[in-house]
Amino acid sequence: MNGADESASSDGEPPQSVQYGLDILGSAGTVFLVGLLVLAVSGIWPPLVAIESGSMEPQMERGDMVFVMAEERFAGPGARDGVVTAATAESSGYNRFGRPGDVIVFAPNGSDQRTPIIHRAMFYVEAGEKWYSRADPEYIGDAENCEELTNCPAKHEGFITKGDANGRYDQVQPIKSTVVRPRWVIGTAELRAPGLGWVRLSGPG
C-alpha cells in the first residue's frame, strides 16, 4: 500500500462507481435522443399502439405493435383532414395494410376515457348528410333507409370507419362510435411489428 485511493484505477480511469453512473447517464441520454427522434418523425406521443382485438385481421393481429404517425404528415393523395378514405383511395390506388384507404387510430366518441380504436376510414360524410345511399349494403345490417340506420343522417361531419374483419361499420354499432370527427383522430397507422405488442398487453395492470 502506498496510500493511494484503492477505488481508483492505476491507469487514471475514474472510480468504478463513477463509471457506472456515467454509463447510466449515457444510456438514459441515448434513450432520450431516440425518443425525441421518434417524436419528431411521428408527431405524436406515444407513437406505438398494441393491437388488443382481432377486428383488423388479417392485416393486423392481436398482439402486434403498430407505429402511428400524425395524420397530417405525409398525407396520401386526396386526403381529407390528413386521412385518405377507402372510397377516395379506390380511384388512386392508394393502399395501406393490404386494402384501400388509411387505417386510423381515433378516440371513440371523442372520449379519452375509452381505449382508442384502430380501424379503416371508409368514407367521409358532411353534417346532416343522409349517407345510407353511399354505404355498402353488406355493412349496414338490416336497415332499409337512412332513418333505420344508426347515425344517419350524420349529426356532424367526419369519417365512417370499420374494422377489416368486422361485418358492420362502427357507426352502425352504437357501442363503437358515432361519426368520427377529424379532431378525434389520433393518427394513421404506418408500420406493423408482429407480436411485439404482447409485451405491453401482458404488462402490469
Automatic annotation (TrEMBL):
Gene Ontology terms for molecular function: serine-type endopeptidase activity
- Lineage: superkingdom: Archaea
UniProt entry keywords in alphabetical sequence: Membrane, Transmembrane, Transmembrane helix
- InterPro entries per record: LexA/Signal_pep-like_sf, Peptidase_S26, Peptidase_S26B
Q: Where in the cell is it found?
A: Membrane
Task: Report if keyword Transmembrane is assigned.
Answer: yes
On whether Transmembrane is a keyword of this UniProt record, the answer is yes
Q: Transmembrane region positions?
A: 24-51
**Entry GO CC:** membrane
Q: Which GO terms describe its biological process?
A: signal peptide processing
> What protein name is recorded for this chain?
S26 family signal peptidase
What is the species listed in this Swiss-Prot or TrEMBL entry? Haloarcula salinisoli
Q: What broad taxonomic lineage does this protein's source fall under?
A: Archaea, Methanobacteriati, Methanobacteriota, Stenosarchaea group, Halobacteria
